[in-house]
Amino acid sequence: MSEQLKTPTLIDVRGPRFSATLTVIVLAIALATQNVWVLALQAVVFAIGAIRGPQFTPYAFIFKSVVQPRLRGEVVTEDSRPPQFAQSVGFVFALVGLLGAAIGSVPVFSIAVGFALAAAFLNSVFNYCLGCEMYLLVLRIRTR
Amino acid sequence: MKSLLPLIIVLALATAFGMWHKLREGHFKVRKAKAAVLDAQMLGAPLGSRVTLVQFSSAFCTPCRTTRALLSQMTADMADVAHLHIDAESHLDLVNRLNILSTPTTLILDKSGTEVGRAVGAPKRDEVLAAIASVK
């Protein structure tokens, strides 16, 4: 686990959900058009979110400069690590999808993009917490 | 545009899964068949005199924070109820033995330390109250 993942930073909870919505749109386009470059773009966003943190992606920048100033109400914060974990999972799926495209396999590309899209959709619409569901399973499998 | 079919399938499955997940989230379920018995030594803290809530949390889990705050605030003035908070990652043996799959998972124990129910996901205040009240 990288050191960044151990340092909690509090961020506006609406940021990651806004980013998840943009991710849904981008991945939906990638899946419907079978476009590798759209997925590559999203992979770069995932990589930034996974390595530096979800508050440093281009989507987070749009949130901070355009969306957040227009939002009212109490700001609820969350630890940046759960969404950062989700970005890492998204990055892995995006990599598998790119690999699928590189070897010319449409099923690998589609299934990988499909999983990443499903995760982003669940996060955006249902506030689904990927880290809650996956992290412990990963640990349990690793120590088996 | 190649085909919208994969997109439609993914969104339909994700919607169904999301709704199913929301429905079962946070409800205390009785587990009679495989009820575990826990003691202060395993948990690292004494049990409550009537009820113990054992919450398992992990690092990448936003609802764990809200659940922890809710349970500790609710149990603060309940003399016979203890709220124990356990970091799942550093207690993987216990996690494996109790078959905890995700966080937050909250077990409710009676005074003998026997698991009488568990809630997966963030529980609601009313359900926690009802679950605590139902323990003899």
CATH class of chain B: Alpha Beta
Overall number of structural domains of chain B: 1
How helical, in percent, are the residues of chain B? 25-40%
The strand line-up of the biggest sheet of chain B is 1-5-4-2-3
| Topology of chain A as a string of helices (H) and strands (E) | EHHHEHHH
* Quaternary structure annotation: heterodimer
Write the layout of secondary structure elements.
The complex is a heterodimer of chains A (144) and B (136).
Chain A (H helix, E strand, L loop, with lengths): L9 E3 L1 H20 L2 H16 L6 H10 L9 E3 L1 H22 L3 H21 L3 H13 L2
Antiparallel strand pairs in A: 1-2
Chain B lengths: L4 H20 L3 E2 L10 H4 L7 E7 L4 H14 L5 E7 L4 H6 L7 E5 L5 E6 L4 H10 L2
Parallel strand pairs in B: 2-3
Antiparallel strand pairs in B: 1-5, 2-4, 4-5
Keywords (chain A): Membrane, Transmembrane, Transmembrane helix
InterPro entries (chain A): DUF4395, UCP030042
Pfam families (chain B): Thioredoxin
Features:
heterodimer, A: 144 residues, mainly alpha, two-stranded antiparallel sheet, 6 helices, 2 strands, globular, B: 136 residues, alpha+beta, Glutaredoxin, five-stranded mixed β-sheet, 40% helix, elongated
Summarize the entry for a quick read.
Chain A is mainly α. Chain A has six helices and two strands. A two-stranded antiparallel ribbon of chain A has the order 1-2.
